[in-house]
Specification:
425 residues; 3 strands; mainly alpha; 2% strand; 22 helices
Length: 425
């Protein structure tokens, strides 16, 4: 037929959400099972198939063929579970594998590296791994022709469907995966030396999959700090959890404990933002902080751990425990004569008093916290604590003044706190 030119090739574009749902409903109707595509399921289907007509048809056909009679009463649940589980329909699997089998060895090597990089990838990244530029260009053109990848811009590509990338990735041996992830992490790190924060989470993932956990933990911690600066709290917590999970696979040593505490402290701070204080994860994190703080020699880590515990007890209205730790923090701060410790310790003592309705006694402690504050320590303290210590001290002092009947002084203090906060913008 190709020889006699009796066939025509039509390139089908990606379907919209509505078009995918319409096509899926036609397949369901033809099956005569008496069901319709469930409401709001169109977006789930489109996300899974990305609007690829073949994927839509074969996904629904595969689900229908595997649907048992006793599941007909649970059509919606069965359909949703099958889609979310992510199993590839046999025809789709075979179609992808056939495309890959027909690739040249050079194109196959390129697409394997691309699958390790991720859904999207760039020519500069691939170029660092393939020194023969002409061969790389030929391989990319072949992959485009075979509809394995598509062009996003003059230097970037992505896979025509994430399932294509998944099939390529699944075909790699564990040893080759680890090697490629290591190489890719090294290349991305080298190409982005001036802005590592923006892609540190991506680098961390590659090092993790390469089995290089120490490097992965470093970059997860870096990614958490970058996310925290953007107030992306859930993302920050996710990076810290991932780093902790990897760290806890390492042998128990004093160094591991110190590093673990360094990840737990910011996690405790982030979790208390926007969550109820009875949250089980918050309790677990602070229990771990308490346990580790008893065995840490680093004075700054120990101080920060105890300050976090003081705050935690106060939030749970365990005022006796909070007062006891606040007193110890003051002793530790005067012993070290560190201005940042003194600012924080006096503030914690003032809060401990204010929480038990002893605002008049709390006032001199907040005033001392403000007196010990040193502006040159602002950046390091904000990075460490995720709040501005002077703004907090001014606000707490204003609260205590207000409760004691000094409304005019409270207004002045609040305005000053606002000015300091605005200077950060």
């Amino acid at each position: 037929m190709r020889y006699h030119q009796r066939w025509h090739e039509f390139v089908l574009g990606r379907l919209t959400v509505a078009q995918s749902a319409q096509l899926a409903q036609k397949v369901i109707t033809q099956a005569q099972i008496g069901h319709e595509l469930p409401p709001h399921f169109d977006k789930v289907l489109h996300q899974h198939t990305e609007g690829n007509p073949l994927f839509v048809v074969e996904t629904i056909r595969s689900l229908l063929s595997s649907l048992k009679h006793n599941q007909s009463d649970h059509w919606t649940e069965t359909l949703r579970h099958a889609i979310v589980s992510g199993a590839l329909p046999p025809i789709v699997q075979a179609t992808i594998e056939q495309r890959l089998i027909s690739l040249s060895p050079q194109a196959r090597q390129v697409v394997e590296v691309a699958a390790v990089i991720g859904r999207s990838f760039t020519v500069p990244t691939l170029g660092e791994l393939y020194q023969n530029e002409a061969e790389l260009v030929r391989s990319l053109e072949e992959l485009l022709y075979r509809q394995v990848i598509r062009e996003e811009s003059s230097v970037s590509y992505d896979f025509t469907h994430d399932r294509v990338r998944e099939v390529v990735y699944a075909g790699l041996s564990q040893t080759r995966r680890r090697l490629l992830h290591k190489q890719v992490a090294s290349v991305i790190e080298r190409l982005n030396t001036t802005d590592l924060d923006a892609i540190s989470g991506q680098i961390a993932l590659h090092y993790e999959r390469a089995g290089l956990y120490s490097q992965a933990i470093d970059f997860y911690e870096r990614a958490s700090k970058a996310a925290q600066r953007l107030y992306a709290n859930e993302e920050t917590a996710g990076y810290l959890r991932r780093g902790l999970a990897l760290l806890r696979q390492q042998p128990v040593t004093p160094e591991r404990g110190q590093r673990e505490l360094g990840l737990l402290l910011p996690l405790g701070v982030i979790l208390t933002i926007g969550r109820r204080y009875g949250d089980p994860e918050i309790n677990l994190v602070f229990e771990q902080i308490y346990t580790l703080s008893r065995h840490i020699d680093d004075i700054e880590q120990r101080f920060d751990a105890l300050r976090s515990l003081c705050e935690h007890h106060r939030n749970f209205l365990r005022m006796e425990a909070s007062m006891e730790i606040a007193d110890y923090l003051l002793t530790l701060a005067h012993k070290t004569k560190r201005a940042d410790f003194l600012t924080l310790a006096y503030c914690e003592k003032g809060l401990a008093l204010a929480y038990v309705c002893r605002s008049r006694e709390a006032i001199p402690y907040f005033e001392q916290a403000i007196a010990y504050y040193q502006p040159e320590q602002k950046d390091s303290m904000i990075a460490r604590l995720a709040f501005h210590p002077l703004v907090n001290a001014l606000a707490f002092l204003a609260m205590a003044k207000q409760l004691c009947g000094y409304a005019d002084q409270a207004v002045i203090l609040i305005n000053r706190a606002i000015e300091v906060a605005n200077d950060l913008a």
